[in-house]
User: Which sequence fits this backbone?
Protein backbone atom coordinates (compact mmCIF):
# COMPACT_ATOMS: atom_id res chain seq x y z
CA UNK A 1 0.00 0.00 0.00
CA UNK A 2 2.86 2.39 0.84
CA UNK A 3 4.57 1.64 -2.46
CA UNK A 4 1.35 2.20 -4.41
CA UNK A 5 0.85 5.62 -2.79
CA UNK A 6 4.33 6.97 -3.47
CA UNK A 7 4.48 10.03 -5.76
CA UNK A 8 5.54 9.18 -9.30
CA UNK A 9 8.84 11.05 -8.95
CA UNK A 10 9.71 9.04 -5.84
CA UNK A 11 8.94 5.79 -7.66
CA UNK A 12 11.17 6.89 -10.53
CA UNK A 13 14.10 7.91 -8.31
CA UNK A 14 13.91 4.85 -6.07
CA UNK A 15 13.63 2.73 -9.21
CA UNK A 16 16.74 4.45 -10.58
CA UNK A 17 18.76 3.38 -7.54
CA UNK A 18 17.49 -0.20 -7.72
CA UNK A 19 18.46 -0.35 -11.41
CA UNK A 20 21.92 0.90 -10.44
CA UNK A 21 22.33 -1.71 -7.71
CA UNK A 22 21.30 -4.62 -9.94
CA UNK A 23 23.49 -3.40 -12.81
CA UNK A 24 26.47 -2.99 -10.47
CA UNK A 25 25.97 -6.49 -9.08
CA UNK A 26 25.63 -7.89 -12.60
CA UNK A 27 28.83 -6.16 -13.67
CA UNK A 28 30.66 -7.45 -10.60
CA UNK A 29 29.42 -10.99 -11.25
CA UNK A 30 30.68 -10.76 -14.85
CA UNK A 31 34.10 -9.48 -13.75
CA UNK A 32 34.41 -12.18 -11.08
CA UNK A 33 33.72 -15.03 -13.49
CA UNK A 34 35.22 -13.71 -16.75
CA UNK A 35 38.59 -15.49 -16.54
CA UNK A 36 37.23 -18.84 -15.30
CA UNK A 37 37.34 -21.38 -18.12
CA UNK A 38 35.15 -24.02 -16.46
CA UNK A 39 31.53 -22.95 -17.21
CA UNK A 40 30.13 -24.54 -14.07
CA UNK A 41 32.72 -22.89 -11.82
CA UNK A 42 32.16 -19.54 -13.55
CA UNK A 43 28.41 -19.76 -12.92
CA UNK A 44 28.96 -20.67 -9.26
CA UNK A 45 31.19 -17.62 -8.78
CA UNK A 46 28.60 -15.38 -10.47
CA UNK A 47 25.90 -16.86 -8.22
CA UNK A 48 27.94 -15.95 -5.15
CA UNK A 49 28.40 -12.32 -6.24
CA UNK A 50 25.11 -11.32 -7.91
CA UNK A 51 22.85 -11.56 -4.80
CA UNK A 52 24.60 -8.43 -3.52
CA UNK A 53 22.34 -6.50 -5.91
CA UNK A 54 19.08 -7.48 -4.22
CA UNK A 55 20.70 -7.08 -0.81
CA UNK A 56 21.48 -3.45 -1.71
CA UNK A 57 17.95 -2.94 -3.04
CA UNK A 58 16.29 -4.23 0.12
CA UNK A 59 18.60 -2.60 2.66
CA UNK A 60 18.46 0.79 0.93
CA UNK A 61 14.70 0.83 0.44
CA UNK A 62 14.82 1.24 -3.34
CA UNK A 63 12.13 0.08 -5.77
CA UNK A 64 12.73 -2.98 -7.94
CA UNK A 65 10.14 -3.91 -10.56
CA UNK A 66 10.46 -7.67 -10.07
CA UNK A 67 10.14 -7.49 -6.30
CA UNK A 68 7.19 -5.13 -6.61
CA UNK A 69 5.27 -7.87 -8.41
CA UNK A 70 4.42 -8.97 -4.85
CA UNK A 71 2.06 -5.97 -4.77
CA UNK A 72 -0.44 -8.22 -6.54
CA UNK A 73 -1.21 -9.52 -3.04
CA UNK A 74 -2.56 -6.10 -2.03
CA UNK A 75 -4.50 -5.84 -5.29
CA UNK A 76 -6.20 -9.19 -4.68
CA UNK A 77 -6.88 -8.10 -1.10
CA UNK A 78 -8.59 -4.93 -2.44
CA UNK A 79 -6.15 -2.64 -0.62
CA UNK A 80 -4.80 -1.00 -3.79
CA UNK A 81 -6.34 -0.41 -7.20
CA UNK A 82 -5.23 -1.91 -10.51
CA UNK A 83 -4.50 1.63 -11.73
CA UNK A 84 -2.18 2.26 -8.76
CA UNK A 85 -0.41 -1.05 -9.39
CA UNK A 86 0.16 -0.25 -13.08
CA UNK A 87 1.41 3.24 -12.18
CA UNK A 88 3.97 1.73 -9.82
CA UNK A 89 5.03 -0.85 -12.40
CA UNK A 90 5.47 1.83 -15.08
CA UNK A 91 7.47 4.36 -13.05
CA UNK A 92 9.61 1.77 -11.26
CA UNK A 93 10.36 -0.12 -14.49
CA UNK A 94 11.39 3.11 -16.18
CA UNK A 95 13.54 4.06 -13.18
CA UNK A 96 15.20 0.63 -13.22
CA UNK A 97 15.94 1.06 -16.92
CA UNK A 98 17.50 4.50 -16.47
CA UNK A 99 19.59 3.30 -13.52
CA UNK A 100 20.84 0.30 -15.50
CA UNK A 101 21.62 2.54 -18.48
CA UNK A 102 23.56 4.94 -16.24
CA UNK A 103 25.78 2.23 -14.75
CA UNK A 104 26.29 0.39 -18.05
CA UNK A 105 27.44 3.51 -19.89
CA UNK A 106 29.89 4.42 -17.12
CA UNK A 107 31.08 0.80 -17.04
CA UNK A 108 31.77 0.74 -20.78
CA UNK A 109 33.32 4.18 -21.10
CA UNK A 110 35.39 3.55 -17.98
CA UNK A 111 36.91 0.78 -20.15
CA UNK A 112 36.26 -1.87 -17.50
CA UNK A 113 35.24 -4.45 -20.16
CA UNK A 114 38.86 -4.27 -21.33
CA UNK A 115 39.91 -6.34 -18.31
CA UNK A 116 41.59 -9.68 -19.00
CA UNK A 117 42.75 -8.43 -22.44
CA UNK A 118 39.17 -7.88 -23.60
CA UNK A 119 37.94 -11.29 -22.47
CA UNK A 120 35.39 -9.67 -20.17
CA UNK A 121 33.91 -7.66 -23.04
CA UNK A 122 33.69 -10.74 -25.25
CA UNK A 123 31.99 -12.74 -22.51
CA UNK A 124 29.42 -9.99 -21.89
CA UNK A 125 28.60 -9.73 -25.60
CA UNK A 126 28.34 -13.51 -25.87
CA UNK A 127 25.93 -13.55 -22.93
CA UNK A 128 23.69 -10.97 -24.60
CA UNK A 129 23.74 -12.84 -27.93
CA UNK A 130 22.85 -16.10 -26.18
CA UNK A 131 19.92 -14.47 -24.40
CA UNK A 132 18.38 -12.99 -27.56
CA UNK A 133 18.80 -16.34 -29.33
CA UNK A 134 16.45 -18.13 -26.93
CA UNK A 135 12.95 -19.01 -28.11
CA UNK A 136 9.79 -17.33 -26.81
CA UNK A 137 8.91 -20.26 -24.54
CA UNK A 138 12.45 -20.56 -23.17
CA UNK A 139 12.61 -16.87 -22.23
CA UNK A 140 9.05 -16.78 -20.87
CA UNK A 141 9.35 -19.87 -18.66
CA UNK A 142 12.79 -18.84 -17.39
CA UNK A 143 11.30 -15.43 -16.58
CA UNK A 144 8.51 -17.07 -14.56
CA UNK A 145 10.93 -19.23 -12.58
CA UNK A 146 13.27 -16.29 -11.99
CA UNK A 147 10.70 -14.06 -10.37
CA UNK A 148 9.32 -16.87 -8.25
CA UNK A 149 12.81 -16.98 -6.73
CA UNK A 150 13.21 -13.20 -6.53
CA UNK A 151 9.86 -12.74 -4.78
CA UNK A 152 10.68 -15.57 -2.38
CA UNK A 153 13.94 -13.75 -1.62
CA UNK A 154 12.16 -10.44 -1.02
CA UNK A 155 9.55 -12.18 1.15
CA UNK A 156 12.32 -13.85 3.19
CA UNK A 157 14.11 -10.51 3.52
CA UNK A 158 10.93 -8.94 4.90
CA UNK A 159 10.82 -11.65 7.58
CA UNK A 160 14.19 -10.54 9.02
CA UNK A 161 14.48 -7.69 11.52
CA UNK A 162 18.23 -7.03 11.26
CA UNK A 163 20.32 -5.99 8.25
CA UNK A 164 22.48 -9.10 8.54
CA UNK A 165 19.37 -11.27 8.49
CA UNK A 166 18.00 -9.52 5.41
CA UNK A 167 21.27 -10.00 3.53
CA UNK A 168 21.52 -13.68 4.49
CA UNK A 169 17.87 -14.26 3.58
CA UNK A 170 18.15 -13.03 -0.01
CA UNK A 171 21.28 -14.99 -0.88
CA UNK A 172 20.01 -18.60 -1.32
CA UNK A 173 17.08 -17.90 -3.71
CA UNK A 174 19.04 -15.39 -5.82
CA UNK A 175 22.08 -17.65 -6.03
CA UNK A 176 19.79 -20.47 -7.13
CA UNK A 177 18.23 -18.47 -9.97
CA UNK A 178 21.64 -17.39 -11.27
CA UNK A 179 22.92 -20.97 -11.13
CA UNK A 180 19.90 -22.19 -13.12
CA UNK A 181 20.21 -19.48 -15.78
CA UNK A 182 16.77 -17.97 -15.21
CA UNK A 183 15.89 -14.63 -16.86
CA UNK A 184 15.55 -11.37 -14.86
CA UNK A 185 14.35 -8.32 -16.80
CA UNK A 186 16.24 -5.70 -14.75
CA UNK A 187 19.49 -7.69 -14.78
CA UNK A 188 19.10 -8.09 -18.56
CA UNK A 189 18.77 -4.32 -18.97
CA UNK A 190 22.38 -3.89 -17.86
CA UNK A 191 23.60 -6.81 -19.95
CA UNK A 192 21.89 -5.60 -23.13
CA UNK A 193 22.89 -1.95 -22.76
CA UNK A 194 26.51 -2.91 -22.11
CA UNK A 195 26.58 -5.26 -25.11
CA UNK A 196 24.96 -2.63 -27.36
CA UNK A 197 27.62 -0.10 -26.33
CA UNK A 198 30.42 -2.56 -26.98
CA UNK A 199 29.07 -3.79 -30.33
CA UNK A 200 26.78 -1.15 -31.92
CA UNK A 201 25.78 -3.62 -34.65
CA UNK A 202 23.86 -5.88 -32.26
CA UNK A 203 20.14 -6.06 -32.96
CA UNK A 204 18.35 -3.65 -30.63
CA UNK A 205 15.02 -5.01 -31.87
CA UNK A 206 15.91 -8.53 -30.74
CA UNK A 207 16.93 -7.21 -27.34
CA UNK A 208 13.68 -5.29 -26.92
CA UNK A 209 11.68 -8.36 -27.95
CA UNK A 210 13.55 -10.48 -25.40
CA UNK A 211 12.99 -7.82 -22.71
CA UNK A 212 9.24 -7.77 -23.33
CA UNK A 213 8.99 -11.56 -23.05
CA UNK A 214 11.16 -11.70 -19.92
CA UNK A 215 9.11 -8.91 -18.31
CA UNK A 216 5.87 -10.76 -18.97
CA UNK A 217 7.36 -13.95 -17.54
CA UNK A 218 8.60 -12.10 -14.47
CA UNK A 219 5.12 -10.61 -13.92
CA UNK A 220 3.52 -14.05 -14.10
CA UNK A 221 6.13 -15.51 -11.75
CA UNK A 222 5.66 -12.66 -9.29
CA UNK A 223 1.88 -13.01 -9.37
CA UNK A 224 2.16 -16.74 -8.70
Assistant:
Amino acid sequence: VRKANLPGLHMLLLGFFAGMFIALAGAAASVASADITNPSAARIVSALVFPAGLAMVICNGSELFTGNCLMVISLLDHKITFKALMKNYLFVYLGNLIGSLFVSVLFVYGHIPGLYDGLLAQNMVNTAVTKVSLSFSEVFFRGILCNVMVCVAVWMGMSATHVSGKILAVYPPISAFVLCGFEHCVANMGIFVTAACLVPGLSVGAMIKSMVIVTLGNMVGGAV
In short: The chain is about 75% helix and 0% strand. The mean pLDDT is 95.
